[in-house]
């Protein structure tokens, strides 16, 4: 968008805050002239200025300055920038002018200077105007917008964006509709120059709503022009054409010529991109080129020439295209030189500002040095004239130094005692101060309670929101704790996300304190992300049996452990070391995951897994993944298996791992595949050992592979009976199959494996199994190799084959051999 559109919006905005005194006729006329400058009524304000000219001498100096400001602003809108700039130079030199009016004058003068590319003057006025903002905060948005505009032109996009956001924040606070309109335009312009076309489009759409609410027709057109430009840059010329037409119509309706020329240029470019109305596009481009050459706007000239070259190329006019491209390159070179001049002017102003600041600092330093020299001279005179007085002064200085040293030592001591992130006591100080308080409480017979708390799922806070969010969570929780503990409590950060609170009071007092802490907590925001978190806590009150603070804290820590495994976001109270928790200190429940965990597991099993303090699993990968979804701390017992390793050794290791948790006093849940009581050595062993310790142990059943087998094969075990044996057991013991019943041989893959190290089938072992079965069954007797489906989407394996073909079949570790009945069972005869 051409710069004149930006200037028009600024001129409208800076007039909106002028006061009107209803009881003063001249003041009312001056205010009316200012108000007519809003939106598209500035020509009417010119006429009113002419009517007021004979009575200028009757105006006060402030009123004359306001009228002069409106006149100079209208000169800028009319395109008479040099005259406007000369007038503003005189106006800004006036000593007596209200700060708000002066800032508005600076804002308008900066925009006009930028339009004629008088960069040194524009940046110089910007530097001067910023000094008056503290005295005229209501005018800040307009000047910040002008500053954003200038920094956009010199390529300081980041700073331009920050300034525009400051302007937007300022107008959002005041509800100034026109200021919001302009601030949104500045943000869109900054994103446009940064090449962020999608973001710029979004700001332009918001600008339409804001400018329509403000009644600013010029800047509504400006926003539509901007959307068209951004849409075209994103490769949507048809949509861009519609926006350009709307912008052109609204610019012309508002009588804003500069905006109309910009819209014509964009409209012609979209027509060329769509290969439509090329004659119309050429006519608009030639008119636009003549206008921009008259304005000496080389960047626009270059863009127009490039579009003419593109049009010529579409018409196969290579000579014309080359001519226009050369002209575009010449204009672009001039535009780049002007851009460098803008950048140089900006850097010069920055340099001058820094130099001025350094000079001021140097003068202040010289002034301070001179003052010190005077003080030193006076001191020498005093020392020469009054020896005793000098001694007193020296003593006083020594006292001051000692006081300063004492303060520094106190500061360093405070830093050594406090956690740098939360401001609470560190681990060492909590233990030191807590030990003293604990001893006094024991001597005086007063209650004393330890609280250990930490943030639930703190690692997820870091993983999801970043470590800065984790630090802010710790800092906030430390602040909330500091705010709720009283003088009788000691609070500190023990390390990581764990906090310790020691208070002279009962466990009920501690729970009330933690409840106040929960009520104090609120969501926090870091880098635009808002999140909440909870905490769990363990509480232990001294009951006369605990001998040390460490024991008391350990008991509270164990209570915290139970709070974590009891579902988190809760407080659990413990008793002293000398009085253990009611009931057994450990327990065991063995549950079955079923063959398909998602379908077969019971609500009781899920509850046991959720509520246990420690969960250990020997299940298939799918079930393990689902369990980790709600118990990420579950232990995988499958790691004890290894190729070539004796399975009996593996079983003993798994048994030892489960018993170690039980003997540690924890509530343990062991999860096994299928039904844990079928062909399973470890579940029965750990139940027996737990009960032998006098601790509760029980087994919750699951759906076994045998139950799935009956369902999948459609067999009723009650029809002829079932004989169910492990394959190797059947082979090495003198067991005869009941041929009148259904016979199930489990783990047929491992048939004949006495080493307990093999995990695959061997033809020799299978042949030995077949040879034994041939004693009772014919070689062509149909048998079934069965494998239960582990996922609901899978089908079970049901392969029917002759008994003699078993050695050549395919086997998995969990394949089961099903041998149907060979004969009908005999009935017991009456009287037998």
TrEMBL record:
<dbReference type="InterPro" id="IPR035996">
    <property type="entry name" value="4pyrrol_Methylase_sf"/>
</dbReference>
<dbReference type="InterPro" id="IPR043128">
    <property type="entry name" value="Rev_trsase/Diguanyl_cyclase"/>
</dbReference>
<dbReference type="InterPro" id="IPR011990">
    <property type="entry name" value="TPR-like_helical_dom_sf"/>
</dbReference>
<feature type="domain" description="GGDEF">
    <location>
        <begin position="446"/>
        <end position="576"/>
    </location>
</feature>
<dbReference type="Pfam" id="PF00990">
    <property type="entry name" value="GGDEF"/>
</dbReference>
<dbReference type="GO" id="GO:0052621">
    <property type="term" value="F:diguanylate cyclase activity"/>
</dbReference>
<keyword id="KW-0548">Nucleotidyltransferase</keyword>
<keyword id="KW-0812">Transmembrane</keyword>
<keyword id="KW-0808">Transferase</keyword>
<dbReference type="InterPro" id="IPR029787">
    <property type="entry name" value="Nucleotide_cyclase"/>
</dbReference>
<dbReference type="InterPro" id="IPR000160">
    <property type="entry name" value="GGDEF_dom"/>
</dbReference>
<keyword id="KW-0472">Membrane</keyword>
<dbReference type="InterPro" id="IPR050469">
    <property type="entry name" value="Diguanylate_Cyclase"/>
</dbReference>
<dbReference type="InterPro" id="IPR000878">
    <property type="entry name" value="4pyrrol_Mease"/>
</dbReference>
<dbReference type="InterPro" id="IPR014777">
    <property type="entry name" value="4pyrrole_Mease_sub1"/>
</dbReference>
<feature type="signal peptide">
    <location>
        <begin position="1"/>
        <end position="22"/>
    </location>
</feature>
<keyword id="KW-1133">Transmembrane helix</keyword>
<keyword id="KW-0732">Signal</keyword>
<dbReference type="Pfam" id="PF00590">
    <property type="entry name" value="TP_methylase"/>
</dbReference>
<feature type="transmembrane region" description="Helical">
    <location>
        <begin position="382"/>
        <end position="402"/>
    </location>
</feature>
<protein>
    <recommendedName>
        <fullName>diguanylate cyclase</fullName>
        <ecNumber>2.7.7.65</ecNumber>
    </recommendedName>
</protein>
